[in-house]
Write a structure and sequence with these properties.
The chain is an alpha+beta fold and 743 residues long. The chain has 27 helices and nine strands.
Length: 743
């Protein structure tokens, strides 16, 4: 009997369960789809060109993704649990009078709770089935999206169902159902019959605030937000310092004030527009909106902040992913780069550090003496090997020639008489315009230059043709988009500069040639100069700032080949105890080997980071969007339920159906649109600053496209909840006011 009643109630209360059902189904779909990512690795294992997604250790970026998604899913499950409970509250509240009728007819509270539990179970099972089906389809789309992101074509595609993800999803939402059932049972058992029967007559009333006070607060809020944007611009969302903290507080306060004052301000504004205020049901509509905003301005504020976070996460997550992968081909032209960080041997910086940092004058003097001794040791090795890293390593690794098929060393020197700031000023640029700032170490650092012969050796190793320069000429090598205009000005034919006592003339050539294996482009207007500049520095006993040996390897597995090569090197230079415990097979020294990067490792890491950023942006952003939209929907439906007597009165006064429903659409549209509009303004400021100060440095020019994707997703989720909300509210108004009256 109770089952029959529950089935009938579900059929009759479809509109009440709509938001609950949509929230649950979307939650299940998203939860399943993103937890199934790890199992999609089987689609790639046998695909040509997919080697990069599997590291030399045998680990897969899909394994890493699965692990991280599982961790984040715990947080997501908690958020979804609260969201389902929140949506369920509306269902229970909307039907309290019905439950009171059951009690009046003789049913016990336990029987009523059983009916509600059965209804919840029926809707939950349906939502699980629909959600898993939708999640299964989304997971297939994600598999193809993954293939596109890592540049692999899936030749042998087959539908893939993740049993692990399905079990995790069922377990998570079964727990949520149990909590919801207990919540419903406790809520109904604690309610008195009189309370249940009079539930719909109890509506929250709150007077409209003074319009003049609201106008003042509204103007002040706008000024506070303008100040917040100004403060944010000072830090540029790159340095999370004092300006960022001030901007954050001002943004939160300004947004709260905006929503607190919005209702009164707009009523004052609309009242002045007589042709609008006295037209149709505009007066009723504005009062309804004002009442809603007055009672829910805090939640609207929270929703706007969450929407802002979601939009920024969506758009910048995609942009950062593009930043880490768009220039992979250019930055992995060699199999590996063996890096020697010779800048660590420079003791001039140590002299400027206060003695207290070392523990006293005696300790500082000891530290400088140790550094100088290490410098002298490296200098002697450097001079004895004629500055050749390959020659020195070859003397320690007997089968070097069998392991390495080609090499090219690039030494980067710092000019002693020309700083980056001086050169930028001479070209009419600021350091901010080229990706740095006045307070960075780059400002007072010497301009970087490399010898022409080494530059051409690196180009030939990468399969490019060498470049010729006349005597006394230089060219500019730049791989960073933000400094492209600066590089063009610096390399303008005929420009003269003085570097280490040599007057050089620009050849007019500006190239983009990566000189090492790296994850991101990092050469900002590096000069390529005649060999004699470096030769003179070498003869004078100086060391370069950085020395990199680019190599091509005989083995197909580049990562493993480099590990084996450095293990062989470690037989002559064994690691210190602390390094050995950390897994190092050689002693890391300023020269010849500080560390290394392989193209295989960079590609795998970049692909993994790209997938991680994209999917976390989608996962977290989507859940936040769904949360905010569901909260707005439930609040709106609750307000509509409270306002049924008002709609009935409008119908009795002769208002036709179209007028009432137009008013309802306006209320819901403004209630959903206001937080989105405010969040959109905040997002536009934040994203523009991120692009200007961070993303554009590495040429993330696709930010407009990724922003469009983020906006499209926001609109799609919003549209689903807005449509569901309107349909449920429309049905409630028509049935509550009386179909005969609203004909």
């Amino acid at each position: 009997m109770l089952m029959k009643l529950a089935l009938r109630n579900v059929r009759r209360s479809v509109r009440d369960y709509a938001v609950y059902f949509v929230t649950l189904a979307l939650g299940v779909a998203v939860f399943y789809a993103f937890n199934a990512i790890g199992d999609s690795r089987v689609l790639f294992e046998a695909q040509e060109g997919a080697e990069g997604v599997f590291l030399a250790s045998g680990a897969s970026i899909f394994d890493i993704l699965a692990q991280i998604m599982t961790y984040f899913s715990v947080v997501v499950a908690v958020v979804l649990g609260f969201l389902v409970l929140y949506a369920n509250r509306f269902v229970v509240r909307a039907r309290k009078k019905e439950f009171g009728t059951y009690l009046l007819l003789g049913m016990s509270p336990r029987q009523v709770s059983s009916v509600v539990l059965t209804e919840t179970l029926i809707v939950g099972v349906l939502a699980l089935v629909v959600g898993l089906g939708l999640g299964f389809l989304i997971s297939q789309a994600i598999a193809f999206a993954t293939a596109g992101l890592i540049g692999v074509a899936i030749g042998d595609y087959h539908l893939l169902f993740s049993a692990r993800s399905a079990q995790l999803t069922l377990g998570c939402f079964a727990l949520i159902f149990v909590v919801v059932a207990l919540f419903n049972a406790i809520q109904i058992s604690r309610c008195k019959l009189a309370t249940l029967l009079s539930a719909r007559s109890r509506s929250e009333r709150m007077p409209v605030r003074n319009p003049l006070i609201c106008l003042i607060v509204f103007v002040l809020s706008c000024l506070i937000l303008a100040k917040a944007y100004s403060e944010l611009n000072l830090d540029g969302l790159v340095y999370f310092g004092e300006h960022f903290r001030i901007a954050t507080v001002l943004m939160l306060v300004g947004t709260l004030g905006l929503f607190w004052s919005a209702s009164g301000f707009f009523i004052l504004l609309i009242q002045r527009l007589r042709g609008v205020y006295f037209k149709g049901l505009a007066m009723f509509t504005m009062r309804q909106i004002a009442t809603k905003v007055n009672t829910a301005f805090v939640s609207l504020w929270a929703v706007s902040v969450l929407l802002f976070f979601s939009i920024v996460v969506f758009s910048t997550g995609f942009s950062l992913a593009s930043m880490f992968s768009d220039q992979l081909e250019e930055n992995t032209q060699f199999d590996a780069s063996i890096r020697a960080s010779l800048m660590s041997l420079d003791t001039s910086d140590m002299e400027a550090v206060p003695a207290e940092k070392y523990g006293g004058d005696e300790e500082k003097a000891t530290a400088i003496k140790i550094a100088e001794a290490e410098h002298d040791e490296v200098h002697n090795l450097w001079q004895a090997s004629d500055g050749s890293t390959a020659a020195y390593l070859k003397s320690l690794i007997p089968d070097w020639d069998e392991r390495v098929t080609g090499s090219a060393q690039v030494d980067t020197w710092l000019a002693s008489d020309l700083t980056n700031k001086q050169l930028a000023d001479a070209c009419g640029f600021t350091l901010e315009q080229i990706g740095s700032d006045e307070n960075s170490s780059m400002a007072d650092e010497g301009v970087q230059y490399v010898p022409l012969s080494q530059f051409n050796a690196a180009r030939q190793l990468a399969g490019e043709k060498p470049i010729e320069l006349a005597a006394g000429e230089y060219l500019v090598d730049n791989t960073v988009d933000k400094s492209a205009e600066y590089a063009k000005a610096l390399g303008q034919k005929g420009r003269t500069i003085t570097v280490d006592g040599h007057t050089l003339t620009a050849s007019g050539q500006v190239v983009s040639q990566s000189l090492q294996v790296s994850s991101m482009s990092c050469l900002i207007a590096v000069l390529v100069v005649p060999d004699e500049l470096a030769a003179e520095r070498f003869a004078a006993g100086d060391l370069p700032y950085l020395s990199e040996l680019n190599v091509n390897l005989a083995s197909d597995s580049k990562q493993q080949a480099m590990e084996d090569l450095l293990t062989e090197y470690g037989k002559s230079v064994p690691p210190r105890e602390e390094l050995a415990e950390a897994g190092w097979t050689y002693d890391s020294r300023p020269w010849p080997v500080s560390y290394y990067d392989t193209s295989e490792g960079i590609i795998a890491d970049s692909m993994g980071l790209k997938l991680l950023l994209v999917y976390l942006a989608l996962y977290i952003g989507f859940v936040f969007l769904m949360t905010t939209a569901a909260v707005l929907s439930v609040q709106q439906l609750s307000e509509v339920a409270d306002s049924i007597p008002r709609y009935r009165l409008l119908a009795q006064l002769g208002c036709d159906r179209s007028m009432v429903l137009r008013s309802l659409r306006t209320q819901i549209g403004i209630y959903f649109g206001a937080p989105l509009l405010v969040a959109g303004c905040h997002s536009a400021c934040a994203i523009s600053l991120l692009y200007k100060n961070l993303l554009s440095i590495w040429g993330a020019s696709a930010v407009a496209g990724t922003l469009a994707v983020g906006i499209a997703l926001v609109i799609a989720v919003y549209a689903i909840y807005l449509a569901s909300t309107y349909l449920v509210a429309r049905s409630a108004v028509v049935s509550g006011a009386g179909k005969g009256l609203l004909a």
